[in-house]
Design brief:
The chain is built from ten helices and eight strands. By secondary structure, it is an alpha+beta fold. It folds into two domains: about 170 residues, no CATH class; about 90 residues, no CATH class. Strands 3, 4, 5, 6, 7 and 8 form a six-stranded antiparallel β-sheet that branches. A two-stranded antiparallel ribbon has the order 1-2. Strand 1 and strand 2 form a beta hairpin. The longest helix is centred in the N-terminal third of the chain and has 24 residues.
Length: about 280
């Protein structure tokens, strides 16, 4: 069961009250750790602008506290990405007799890439543009000629009487042979290969000058909104009953012992104290 869900049970109402304090403090902490600062960035057209971003390291440091709750087990801090959407989260739990108390905190945010506002970006872009202008469509012609060159090199290696389809199957299925032919083609088109290599190196240098910026909205969202890709955070505390080795989401307070109830309150209070620190 999710702590915080509507209930008429006196004990669960007590847990809900503690949980509400946790939620309020968590949101305050998230708002603080994702506070934005203004920074200069460069766009692809070499113009500069100011944008707001936050430091994701602050969130990581905050979440690391939840991986070190005394006597709790934790999966550590994890992350996921889907194009420009990112998620940082951690899950921890503790076994208390026949009950498992678990905590899941998460932040979902977007990332945007810009260039660092440095002269080196302009110089690399200029060098890349000059290289493209001077070489024209040599790479395109090279790609268009690839099939003919494959057949030509296969013939040079003695595969002259095989049908064209079988030759291509031989090329794609024999890794050692295909690498040998690619090397022969590259050697026969060394100027084009050299241009491609220069371009790749310039693009790599530009990639190394990319700057990640982050944006989120400091609001509490539920798991469905998280799955839907909305920005925000969540802090869920769940209580489950273990029966015959299987977790049960339905928890009956009437059969809980006072000892179990006290242990659960103590552990949830640990989370609250952690939020206050």
């Amino acid at each position: 069961m999710r702590i915080g869900n509507p209930t008429n049970n006196e004990y669960f109402l007590k847990l809900n009250e503690i949980n509400q304090h946790i939620q309020d403090l968590f949101l305050t902490k998230i708002a603080d750790t994702t506070r934005t600062v203004n920074c200069d960035v460069m766009l692809g057209d070499s113009t500069t602008k100011k944008i707001d971003t936050f430091d994701i390291a602050n969130v990581t440091n905050f979440f690391s506290d939840f991986t070190n709750i005394p006597n709790w087990s934790s999966q550590g801090i994890s992350s996921s990405s889907d194009e420009d959407l990112r998620r940082l989260f951690t899950k921890s739990e503790i076994r208390l007799g026949d009950y498992i108390l678990s905590l899941h905190v998460s932040l979902q945010y977007h990332i945007q890439l810009y260039y660092k506002p440095v002269q080196e970006v302009l110089e690399l872009q200029k060098e890349l543009a000059n290289l493209i202008d001077s070489t024209g469509n040599s790479e395109t012609k090279y790609e268009e000629e690839s099939d003919r060159l494959i057949i030509e090199k296969l013939n040079e290696l003695g595969f002259m009487d095989m049908p064209k389809q079988e030759l291509f199957e031989l090329f794609y299925n024999d890794e050692e042979l295909s690498e040998k032919i690619k090397k022969m083609i590259d050697e026969s088109q060394s100027e084009v290969v050299d241009v491609k290599d220069k371009k790749n190196k310039l693009f790599k240098k530009l990639d190394n000058l990319l700057l990640e910026t982050f944006h989120t909205t400091p609001v509490i969202i539920d798991e469905q909104k998280l799955v839907n890709g909305e920005e925000g955070c969540l802090c869920n505390i769940d209580l489950e009953y273990v029966e015959d080795g299987a977790k049960q989401g339905l928890v009956d307070a009437s059969i809980m012992t006072d000892e179990d109830k006290n242990k659960i309150v103590i552990e949830i209070t640990k989370i609250l104290e952690l939020m206050k620190s």
